[in-house]
Specification:
Oligomer: single chain
Helix content: 25-40%
Bound molecules: zinc ion, fe (iii) ion
Largest sheet: 6 strands, mixed
Strand order of the largest sheet: 1-2-3-4-5-6
Number of strands: 14
Number of helices: 9
Distance between the termini: 38 Å
């Protein structure tokens, strides 16, 4: 499975997947038609599947025009069947779906929205996380509860360390600044900072991250770290309390 990162809108990423053995083409979260179609039209001239992690416009904005041009099948989570433009096939939690010669599993991860899912390609070790898990951050809690978001992130945290994480936005640098502010003694973060700066300076995406890196760097997965607890003055609080506090601090960072 070949993957291409397409920068869309201000800071969104759409992901184009090509299974060479079967010449199957799919896209995850087409934010807009133009940027996505430029590559599809030039390289593949076809688009079999459109996968949506959630219904927000910056993840589904290209659905209808792409579907019309390429007669693609639009896939989305069952709870969002009335909110994903052009949806053809509904997916359930834990459902496997075949894309050419490989397949992905849908993982239900509510919190950012009530119908948010991740797509997990186990064999390829790839995970598409939309606006739930970002590189060094997590999405805002819009429709769900803090508890749901916390549980969703824990689900993703349990995947193998070498799973590559492809998220919906280039927020890595801002996220890293937040992590450093409240996890100041995390040496791995300090090391990552120059790496991230270099990527951005060269106008390269900082994506993909990996689950292993997220566990070491992402403060929203580090509610157990004494350094974090101390920084926010909640040394005797529960994990969910720590998580909630961090998410609230990030909203105003
Ligand atoms: Zn969103
Ligand atoms: Fe988004």
């Amino acid at each position: 499975m070949n993957i291409k990162i397409i920068a869309c809108l201000n800071d969104n990423y759409s992901y184009l997947l090509h299974d060479e053995s079967s010449n199957t083409v799919a896209i995850v979260d087409p934010s807009e038609f133009e940027e996505c179609d430029k590559i599809i039209d030039k390289k593949y001239k076809k688009l079999d599947f459109i996968l949506n992690t959630h219904h927000h416009y910056d993840h589904v904005g290209g659905n209808e025009k792409l579907k019309k041009k390429y007669n693609s099948t639009v896939l989305g989570f069952i709870n969002d069947k009335n909110r994903i433009p052009g949806i053809d096939k509904v997916l359930k939690d834990n459902q496997d779906f075949k894309i050419g010669s490989s397949y992905f599993t849908t993982i239900f991860i509510p919190g950012h929205t009530r119908g948010h899912v991740a797509f997990y390609f186990k064999k390829e070790k790839m995970l598409f996380t939309g606006d739930t898990l970002f590189s060094f951050g997590c999405g805002r809690v819009f429709e769900g509860t803090y508890e749901q978001m916390f549980e969703s992130l824990k689900k993703l945290k349990n995947l193998p360390d070498d799973t590559k994480v492809y998220c919906g936005h280039e927020y890595t640098y801002k996220n890293l600044e937040f992590c450093l502010a409240f996890n100041p003694n995390n040496n791995f973060l300090k090391k990552k900072k120059s790496e991230i700066e270099l990527s951005l300076k060269n106008k390269k995406p900082t994506i993909p991250s990996t689950i292993g890196n997220e566990i070491r760097a992402n403060i929203f997965l580090r509610f157990n770290d004494p350094d974090v607890k101390k920084a926010i003055n909640l040394e005797n609080s529960s994990d969910i309390e720590i998580f909630t506090k961090l998410r609230e601090l990030k909203d105003n960072f």
